[in-house]
Each structure stands twice: as C-alpha cells, then as structure tokens.
Amino acid sequence: MRPTVCLVSVFALMAAAPGVMAQTPAPTAVSAEAATLRTYTAAEFYQTRNYGMSSPAGLGFSADGRSILISSDETGVFNAWALPVAGGPPVPLSTSTTVATRGLSYFPGDDRVLLAADSGGGGSELTHVYVRELDGTVRDLTPGDNVKADLLGWSAARDVFYVTSNLRDPEVFDLYAYDADTYESRLVFQNPGMFIADISPDGRWLAIDKPNTSADSDVYVVDLQGDGEPRLVTAHEGAVAHGTYAFSPDSRQLIYGTDEHGEFNQAWTHDLTTGAKAPLIQADWDVQFVSWSPSGRYRVSALNADASTELTLLDTRTGQPVRLSGLPAGNLGQVRFNADETRIAFTVSSDTSPNDVYTADLTTGQARRLVTALNPDINEADLVEARIVRYAASDGTIIPGVLYQARGASAANPGPAIVLVHGGPGGQSTRGYSPMIQHLVNHGYTVLAANNRGSSGYGKTFFHMDDRAHGESDLQDIVDAGQWLRDQDWVADDQVAVMGGSYGGYMTAAALAFHPEAFEAGVNIFGVTNWVRTLESIPAWWGPQRDALFDEMGDPATDAERHRRISPLFHATNIRRPMLVVQGANDPRVLQVESDELVAAIRANSVPVEYVLFPDEGHGFQRRDNRITAQEAYLTFLDRYVRK
After folding, report:
1. Strands 398-404 vs 415-421: parallel, antiparallel or unpaired
2. Can you state the percent helix, strand and coil of the chain, rounding each to 5?
C-alpha cells in the first residue's frame, strides 16, 4: 500500500495499462500472422472470467483445507465460490443475479463464510458484511439503511473477527468485535475521525492512519488494553506520507510505509514496546504491501516497479525467496495460506492472460493451475503484449505510459489510436490484462495508457506535480500523449481519440472542452463534469478522505471559482468533436445529473453526442451484460467518428 492510497482511489475507475521509454520505441513488424489475425466480439472478450481471492484480512482456505474461497463473475455478476484444491469446478456459495457478492473469509472451524455485498443495490457502495450459514442461509451482520462495513481481520485465536462500520456516525468508521459463534458484537474502538487500518493478531494494538494534507499523513497506534488513546508513532517535520501495512504476526511490531527517506515509499518497523524504528524493505520503487503467513514463517511483499507488480514470497527461516515451479510467465498476486502453511493459493496474470488461480505445495514448490480465466474461444497469441514508453511533455517533463500497439499498424498501414486516461486523481495505469483494451487493440486501435503527472508509482515529486492544477498541467500531458502518437509513423495522425473512466472521464471531457482540436473524438465513462457539484456532494462516509481530497483539489468553499474554470460543463460551448458519454444511474460519486447536463449542452452545439445510461450500475460496472453493451458502444462510436 502507498500511504496516499486513500487519495489515489478517490475517483479511480480504470487503472489501465503500460508505460514508455525516453526514446521512441521501434514499431512492431507486420507479420503474416497479423494479416490473418482473428478478431473477436466484445461478448467473446467478456466471456473471460474474472477471478479474485478472499479478502487479505480473511481466511482463504476452508477449515479442512480442501477448498479455496474465490469470487468470480461466472454467472455474469460476481458471486462467492468454493474452489476445490484437488481440482474440479467451483461450487457456488452465493447466487445473486443483480448485486456483486464477494467472498471475504472462511470461518476457522467449519464451512461458514463471510460475504460482502452492496446493500443498497447496484452501485450504492454501501457494502454490508454477511454470514453464510452451514445450511446456506445468509444473514446480514451489519444491518442499517446507510451503513457501510468491511472485514478488518481475525484474532490470532480465531474466536473473534473484527469489522469496521459507520453505524454510529455516517462520517466515521468504528471498530466492532464479533463473536465467531454467536455473532454478538461489541464496540471496541470509537474512532475520533481517522482511518482504522489494522489490528494486531493478539487484539491489543490498533493502527489508524490520519491524512493531514494530500502530501502529509501520520500513523497512530492505540493500546486497546490501556487508555485507548491514539498515540502518534510517525512524528516528523515537513510533508511526509505515512501509512500502515500490517502488524507482525507476534504483535510486537507495526510495519508502516513512509516516503521520508526518498522519492519512494519504504517499509519500516516500529517496535510497540520500545518505539525503535528500522527499515524493513527499501527499494527504488514504492513498496505496495507487506503481509505474513499466520505463524510469520513466510513474508509476502510487492514493489510497484514501473507499472508492474514484483512480488516476493520470502521464507524468513532461510532468508531466501520461495521458488515455485510449473508457472507461466506473469505476475503473482493475492497469496493466501492454508492453516498449517503447507500450501498457498494465488493468482497469475499477464498482459494477455487474466487472473488464473493456482495452488502450490510449499514443501516441493510445485504449482498447479485450478481455473483458466481466458475465454477458450480466444487464442492468446492473437492478443498484444504491452511495453513501457516515455515521452516528453510540452514543458520537458518525462511522462510514462503503457503502450499496446495494434498488430498490423505500420508506416505502410498507419492505424487509429487512443489515449487512455486512468482514474484518480492520483491513480496509475499498470500493465496487466484488460478486456476493454484488448478488444479495442484486437479491432485495430493502438492504446496508449498515459500516466500523466500526478499519477502514483513514480515518486512523490511526480505524484504532487498536479496538486491544485488539475485539468491544466496534467491535461496538457494527455494532449501531448496524443501528439506523441501522431508522431509515430504507424499511427494515422487524423485518427487519435481520448478515452477514460472516472477522473479519466473528466480528463476526456476536459480535453474536448479546453483543447477542442486535439482529438478526433472522446469517450467519457462516468466522468466528472462539474467539480463544484461533485466536491459539494461527496458522501458522508468519506470522512477525513474528503478533507485530503479538498487539500489536493481545493476546498469548494474557497476554490469554487477555479473548480468552475476547470469543469467541462461550464465550457461545453467549446466542444466541437463528438463525445460518447457513459453513466450509471446509481453513481454516488459522479451524479447522473452531471452527464445529463453535459449531453444536453453538447447537443445544443449541434455536435454529435451519444449517451449510454445504465439504470442498474454505479461508479463502475458490476454486470457482464452491461460491460458488453458499453464495450460495443465504444467500438461502434470510435469506428464512426475516428477510423477513416
């Protein structure tokens, strides 16, 4: 975790893809294979399954060790499933047809399961924690109309699990302990208005994070067996970001992240008795997370290395990484241990392969794939590997990005291209499988997922370069990305579009409003168009996250004039190029009225605008059929207005 993750994810919808080298990359040669490349429909790409493991705070293996808890959209909507370790089809544990339901944790002594689902219907983000009983009945453990709750973890004795909930105060998440047998709950900690990050395995210590500004944050610990008062453990001077990773398995240390010692986030330890601090993991990239197996024998950590995740599974007894065999090339993630630490479950993915679920014997290191996510009707060889590129912005700043070059695009046959903008502010496009990107590339569109200034993953200086300059310097980086594409002889210089979701949707609309000749068209997916309204309507449960967002974006009480200046809605008369607008009617972050008004304003210009409104979605897609509908709309729109 990056300590600024609370800001990175504020409006994040799409963290798309790759990056760029300082020099122009050599174009991919056109092969006979490219000439006979098979193209696939949106439906075929979205018949690919999405697989995810249990919550990192939960127990991923059943009590008998025979099943792994996963979540999958096998039925078109995410549900929880039990995946047999020995092989065979997964067994459904939930059967929702409308609301995404995810498996959080097995119980330690039997096959009960903790689940999470949106209690307010598709897209409200008011997630509750449920228990699935042995007879299959489901019970809401966190009832309430405006309640949002999540699993924080289990005690070391496995007789109690902890849940955060805003039941008492819509703006604050308190900590509750639930008896694993009776489900009786008790308030453990009344939060004064910070982020509850983790609880130690022995149940004594609580870690809470406090954002001070967008660049400065602190970590506190609370002795729940003492006076219960938060105690600052990251005293510092200047703007330094800190954030909790985890407690050590013996409950003696807190592991936290800090960028105090350089550009990137390092992992440090804090001794809970003496207060002594020491570095644990230092690297030239951000440390993403640190966790352990239950006994502490194995430590799992990862680096965000130039838009790729580099995971290390360390045997702390030997000090050596665990070597696994039988794996394809790709990134490992979501590692879960069984109770006796003889086996792990995890995912492996790449640019051309989504998350497949594997298991491995830690004694032999032998790994075995349990499920394959990619639609078997798609030949993986038809898909495109990304490469990292870098280009110079107008002011000389070097901007990284992830490039998916369409097969067949060449100087002799230049093709259309898209600048894809990630969510945020402060998100990051990373390498990895995206059906949205691969479908567009498969149909001839090169995609450059630009990491404009303000993106995470490239150091704190780069991350804060757009503070209170959103829609200005970061938008120019996106315009410059379009020019970089036009400068490649394998891109048709009159066929470049801009596209993005959430904050990326805002950047798309802003590009067409403030740089009306820069792109041939734009695809705005759940994008902010009126910052004045959006910032004033932030949900109550954002709490201190809202304050940090105001520090980065500006407080609507004092900066409304600038927010109006950067909002596309108020400058829609400038828009002269076609736009596709996609909106969820239940979106609590970007209200439907924003898209309604923008569409009306563009139509008043007599400019082509298409509007796709999903009545059963929020800020993102939960249903496969809606993903397919949206994807088909993207391609149809781009073919109509960009490809010539």
Report:
1. unpaired
2. 20, 35, 45
Q: Which two tokens stand for residue 109?
A: 């002594």
Q: What is the pLDDT of residue 541?
A: 66
Whether residue 562 contacts residue 570, with contact meaning beta carbons closer than 8 Å, is answered with no
Q: Evaluate the CA torsion angle 315, 316, 317, 319 in order and state its sign.
A: positive
The pLDDT assigned to 10 comes to: 39
pLDDT of 457 above 90: yes
Q: What is the pLDDT of residues 97-144, one digit of tens each?
A: 888 999 999 999 999 999 999 876 666 788 999 999 999 999 999 999
Q: Which DSSP letter does residue 296 get? A: S
Query: Between vectors from CA 201 to CA 195 and to CA 207, what angle results, nearest 5°?
Result: 20
Q: Is-contact 152 199, C-beta < 8 A? A: yes
For residue 162, with 0-12 CB atoms within 10 Å meaning exposed, 13-18 middle and 19 or more buried, which class applies?
A: buried
- Per-residue exposure over 113-139, b if at least 16 CB sit within 10 Å of its own CB, e if not: bbbbbbbbebbbbbbbbbbbeeeeebe
Residue 101's Cβ-count burial label (10 Å; 0-12, 13-18, 19+) is buried
CA distance 344 to 364: 12
- Checking if the pLDDT of 612 tops 90, the result is yes
What was the pLDDT predicted at 122? 63
> E strand or H helix at 288, and its extent?
strand 286-292
In the chain, where the domains are located: 5-43+378-641, 283-373
As a whole-number percent, the residues of the chain with pLDDT over 90 amount to: 82
pLDDT beyond 90 at 339: yes
What backbone phi and psi angles, to 5 degrees, belong to 373? -85, -35
pTM score, whole prediction: 0.90
Mean pLDDT of 422-430: 91
DSSP string, 314-370: EETTTTEEPP-BS--SSEEEEEEE-TTSSEEEEEEEETTEEEEEEEEETTT-BEEEE
| C-alpha separations of 616 from 230, 321, 500, 530, 586 in Å | 41, 45, 20, 23, 7
Sheet of 127-132, strand order:
101-106, 113-118, 127-132, 138-140
Residues in the chain: 644
pLDDT band at 590 (very low <50, low <70, confident <90, very high): confident
Q: Is the pLDDT at 250 greater than 80, yes or no?
A: yes
Decide if pLDDT at 92 tops 70. Answer: yes
Give the DSSP letter string of 603-618.
Answer: HHTT--EEEEEETT-B
Rounded Cα–Cα distance for residues 221 and 434 (Å):
39
CATH classification for the domain delimited by 5-43+378-641, as one of 3.40.50.2300, 3.10.350.10, 3.40.50.1820, 3.40.50.800: 3.40.50.1820
